[in-house]
Write a structure and sequence with these properties.
Strand order of the largest sheet: 2-1-3
Distance between the termini: 20 Å
Order of helices and strands: EHEHHEH
Helix content: 40-55%
Strand content: 15-25%
Structural class: alpha/beta
Number of helices: 4
Length: 80
């Protein structure tokens, strides 16, 4: 099974570049462009456990990366 990553960055060129690099290594990825979108995906336990890791931009306009991390860790499945 190939590793799967969630990429969270408000700059589409960054998500595209990282997704392309990961794909060249045989990995899968899902890219979103806001912290709100990331939390929506991660709030579902099945979805969040589908990712091996999350690439999370720190500076985003809606919710910054540290807030995303804090809110995810507060979820019942956020520390697994």
């Amino acid at each position: 099974m190939n590793p799967k990553f969630l990429i969270v960055d408000d700059d589409p060129s960054c998500t595209d570049l990282l997704a392309t690099m990961l794909q060249s290594l045989g990995c899968e990825s899902v890219a979103v462009h806001s912290g709100t979108e990331a939390l929506s995906i991660l709030s579902n336990e099945v979805s969040s456990s589908a990712f091996d890791a999350v690439f999370l931009d720190i500076m985003m306009p809606d919710i910054d990366g540290l807030q995303v991390l804090t809110q995810f860790r507060a979820m019942p499945h956020g520390t697994e």
